[in-house]
Hints:
This protein has 86 residues and is α+β, with helices and mostly antiparallel strands. The protein has 3 helices and 2 strands, in the order αββαα. 5% of the residues are buried.
Amino acid sequence: xxxxxxxxxxxxxxxxxxxxxxxxxxxxxxxxxxxxxxxxxxxxxxxxxxxxxxxxxxxxxxxxxxxxxxxxxxxxxxxxxxxxxx
Length: 86
């Protein structure tokens, strides 16, 4: 949704966006740029397919914008889940 809104605002020829996500559990020691070094980590891999008459600069910018969407920002921040009975 974020990419679509950005493309419309910038009048880019984005026809279709397809996002595929996969989830893995990896050993923290195998993650070079992670703060956590012990135990296991969740890793989400994102593949984005952009369709449309876009040049390389526009494609790079759209991928940059994708990392700024609210869902991406939430998933890449520290998350705490608190469960209560109601």
